[in-house]
Design brief:
The structure is a homodimer. The first copy, chain A, is α+β, with helices and mostly antiparallel strands and about 290 residues long. In chain A, about 25% of the residues lie in helices and about 40% in strands. In chain A, strand 4 and strand 5 form a beta hairpin. The N and C termini of chain A lie close together (about 10 Å). At the A-B interface, helix 1 and strand 18 of A face helix 1 and strand 18 of B. Strand 18 of chain A pairs antiparallel with strand 18 of chain B.
């Protein structure tokens, strides 16, 4: 029996249509529990051909607004950045809620706090950020595939995906890099990393960075605009510069794949002395309709 | 100013949702002429991330039903197979026509004749099929990247895309092949070919073939179900076996990328003694709604 569910395809981290990162969102909140198999969810995500397709369900934890399940064409993810922003935007549209200022999203990695600014920008607080050293040989192998120098020791950031953050001398060097994707895929696969976040600072006093995200071993040579990558980058910069106060970062991404993404990120000094890591931005609903399963 | 246009995403060469090859179709037939720039069409196709996105316009030749423009994420194509079937299916849905038995589609390569069977299957007659020899060195290089033997001399089929057809000993050998995509991309690019159509005959008397389509130099390692590839294959088989009578071929494709595509192809001996090449199959409308430009 075929089933018809509400469907949105949202452009994330942009206010200009088609210049951000798309995510397909299927509203399963009114579907009978268990009527859609995991196999079906995976085959839908394989078919949309987007880096991520998400499915909204009723939360199992009643303090949450919804539960999201996030799929790449190949597998399910515990958490991802732009799909979180796009799913929140879709949740607001599906439910007709216009005055909400915060949301609690349930996902496999845990509960994610989201806030909605007056201008409509949606931000999420990273559910988990851990930093780890990587071996000299891994660094050398990455450097060979990237063919550019790093200006600080690359490290591994666990933020859901496992990104190696590789800081280069400036924004232009980052933008102009032509990595060997086959080589990168080999190195990432060997060490069990998701991929590389390449970044370079723009000139001037502000914390403005050009960023690129390469995950060829996951089948995505270059992700247009990457939310979890922005968290990895500010987690890395916090560690590198020992940032202890609330600090804003502006990240641009996507120019080399004909997008113009903007991510607003923030290291936040919480009242309890802990640090948290927040990223967000604009989003635009591009496709609105229904999907037949 | 934003614009809202009717949108469909159609699954082609399957009757089972998510098991075919998707194409996004935007109905621009009621949009003011010239209001959408070529740049916009290209950026939409870049964003959907599908192998093809098509746009339906009023025909410039009044005997045609519609004009289609076909875009990959990177460029415009003069003709393509599964986007033609999907666009025809979308045209029928957009216009509410249910009793039409034939359509004339205008596209960059020329006018394409389509027929709609009583069971809803849509077939197209290939606008152009030409066969050409390729060099021994090209054949050797392809063989190295495919790592399997051919059972007849591979040739180049111009059917819009330029496919090298590579016939192997049987369907299983075709299904199990693990080509070196980076190697294939290099060879195709060097010789200016779109990619490789790999095929192997199934056991038994019928003309049943397993087929795979590789176009890594166009950014598509493996196309799930390929209409123009099916035309290239039957063009090649017609030449190889000197087929002069109307002959049916059944082609299955997509198993290795988790699809189950079925293409019905036919070499047709026309009354004037000419041969024509026809392919078609089922299609399912999966996403229905609107797109905001």
């Amino acid at each position: 029996m075929s089933m018809n569910l509400p469907f949105l395809q949202v452009d994330v981290f942009t206010s200009i249509p088609f210049m951000g990162n798309p995510v397909a969102v299927v509203n399963c909140m009114n579907a009978t529990d268990g009527i859609i198999s995991d196999e079906q969810l995976q085959s839908i995500a394989n078919w949309t051909n987007l880096s991520e397709t998400t499915f909204l369900f009723k939360p199992s934890d009643e303090k949450c607004d919804y539960k999201v399940r996030i799929f790449t064409p190949a597998s399910e993810l515990p958490f991802a950045g732009h799909p979180t922003v796009g799913s929140a935007r879709a949740y607001l549209k599906f439910t007709g809620k216009t005055k909400v200022k915060s949301l609690l999203q349930e996902c496999e990695l845990g509960i994610v706090n989201l806030s909605i600014a007056d201008n409509g920008k949606i931000s999420f607080r990273a559910p988990s950020v851990n930093i780890e050293e990587i071996s000299h040989s891994a660094i050398d192998e990455y450097q060979q595939s990237l063919s550019i120098e790093h200006v600080a020791t690359p490290k591994l950031l666990h933020v859901g995906p496992k990104w190696v953050v590789y800081l280069t001398s400036n924004a232009d060097t980052c933008y102009n890099a032509n990595p060997d994707f086959a080589g990168l895929a080999k190195v990432s696969k060997h060490y069990g990393h998701s991929g590389i976040i390449l970044a370079g600072k723009k000139p001037g006093e502000g914390n403005e960075y050009e960023m690129r995200a390469f995950a060829p071993c996951e089948g995505v040579d270059e992700d247009p605009v990457c939310g979890s990558g922005s968290i990895a980058l500010i987690g890395y910069l916090q560690d590198l510069y020992e940032v202890q106060e609330t600090t804003e970062f502006k990240i641009t991404q996507g120019g080399r794949v004909k997008r113009q993404g903007h991510i607003s990120s923030r290291v936040v000094a919480e009242k309890d002395g802990e640090l948290s890591f927040v990223s967000g931005g604009d989003s635009v609903i591009i496709i609105e309709g229904s999907i037949t399963l």
